[in-house]
Design a protein that fits this description.
about 190 residues
């Protein structure tokens, strides 16, 4: 991986050198008294430099896109093969995703839980109180559960209440100010 980064950096340097050398020098020659019809080859060299630079930019973009796809596949593979359940929810409590270990723990499939409220996986009284906890956190920024592993009661699809170890974290999405950014909460769960 380090080698690929070095090569990409080398292309960036080559791009900078070619465009500076041929582009700037070409402009100087065109505006100087040295310009005459014998400088046609200079236009050819500039065209080659710009063409090469353009191809290097395209190649660099394609290489970056390929590396991003590889990273996406790798991360999804890690999540899918994790031994612990991983659940992500939106800041309104709707479940965004659950990995196979989470499906096994709760007895639901990912499709059954998609866009359902996370309180579906909680027994009473936590079920009715949970949305209030999220709203209070979003309003005050104070939480008793973020960044702390704790044991909580949970509810399987078959109605069984069981102890669940929960670690909860938060991610701010986008590049808006922190107060306007959508949040994703990630729960790591273990039964």
């Amino acid at each position: 991986f380090e080698h690929r980064l070095f090569v990409a950096a080398g292309y960036d340097y080559l791009f900078a050198i070619l465009t500076t050398l041929f582009g700037s020098a070409g402009v100087l020659f065109e505006t100087s008294v040295l310009w005459d019809a014998s400088w046609w080859w200079w236009h050819y060299l500039r065209l080659m430099a710009y063409g090469t630079s353009f191809l290097l930019v395209v190649f660099s973009y394609l290489k970056t896109e390929q590396e991003l796809k590889h990273a996406y596949v790798k991360i999804n593979s890690l999540i899918a093969n994790a031994m612990d359940g991983i659940i992500t929810i939106h800041d309104d409590g709707r479940i965004e995703s659950i990995n196979p270990a989470g499906e096994r723990i709760f007895g639901y499939t990912a499709d059954e839980l998609a866009d359902k409220n996370i309180n579906l996986l909680m027994p009473e009284p936590y079920r009715t109180e949970h949305d209030g906890y999220i709203k209070k956190y979003l309003r005050t920024g104070q939480s008793k559960v973020l960044g702390v592993a704790r044991e909580v009661p949970a509810l399987r699809k078959n109605g069984e209440v069981f102890p669940l170890e929960l670690s909860l974290s938060e991610m701010l999405m986008g590049d808006q100010p922190a107060t306007d950014r959508p949040r994703i909460f990630t729960g790591i769960v273990r039964d």
